[in-house]
Amino acid sequence: MAGLNSRSALGSRRLKAALLVGYGRSGSTIIGSALGSHQRLFNAGELLWLPRQIGDAECYCSCGDLLGECEFWGAVTKKLVETCGRDAMSKLRQLSEQFDSGRWTWLRARRAIAAGSAEAKDYAALNFALYDAISETAGAEIVVDTSKLPARALLLSHAEASRFRVMHLIRGHRAAIASLKKKYSKDPRAGVPQDLGGRGATLTSLAWLKWNLECEALAARMAEPDFQRIRYEELITDPKRGLSGIAEFLRIEPDGFSTRIDLRAQHIFAGNRLRMQTSQSLEPRKTLPENLTQRERLVGDAVTALGRWYYGW
Ligand SMILES: [Zn+2]
Description:
Elements: H1 2-14, E1 17-21, H2 28-35, E2 41-45, H3 50-53, H4 71-84, H5 88-99, H6 105-114, H7 118-138, E3 142-148, H8 150-159, E4 164-170, H9 173-181, H10 201-221, E5 227-231, H11 232-237, H12 239-250, E6 260-262, E7 279-281, H13 294-303, H14 305-311
Parallel strand pairs: 1-3, 1-4, 2-3, 4-5
Antiparallel strand pairs: 6-7
Helix pairs in contact: 4-7, 5-7, 6-8, 8-10, 9-10, 10-13
The structure holds zinc ion.
């Protein structure tokens, strides 16, 4: 244990942010908030949306305030402006629209890196300044960013590999199909910023395959100690063991997590609607069979066959 602690201190001086990547509906909101219960981590949620949502009059933070009125994010913005200038948030918004939006983010990021793009360097510098501002405001060493986008991880790890680690969160495709076919009506206070859902099994399965392929391409470009794969199903059936593995990866104490998570004490402004609950528990639970039709199961299994073979499902 003493050896781990001494390595922890050394690692944490360097490490600034850990980004969760993976396809939507993989459980990143619950896992991000579980990580945020550790005093050395701060869960910032899906941070890539911050510059685009901070002026949104309908976006609520998990603390209960509107994002634009939340004291925590107000203090973060102030620090960012002090470090990077008055137009820091609008510049970050412009760069986020350029690199975090659309269907071809991965190719765009690869091209930008190959070309030595100044905008890609600005994107990374401003995002690391944002991580620093969050870390200082929260008083936590490492920011957990659950943005999920592999292209974002590629740009940030390329710029500052020594301060950045990536966790690939993977969950079975059937859970994604079952979740994305459900429809939710817009309800900002309940954490649903727009009408959601109603997506068919084929599109969801193709997207699941594409996102996980991008995560594997990212793994191939990162040093092994800086990238870790986390299987959602394994983590929720044995959270203590799963979180210990993450603690070792991030070089922090494994016994610092809480199984009862107070979401009102966190400031998650984007992600699954579950973020607007007051608390959540991370007790061990069983994975249940998804409610899918036979056609949805057949289509999903056929489209994702390559990925399922690779992951041993
Ligand atoms: Zn808040």
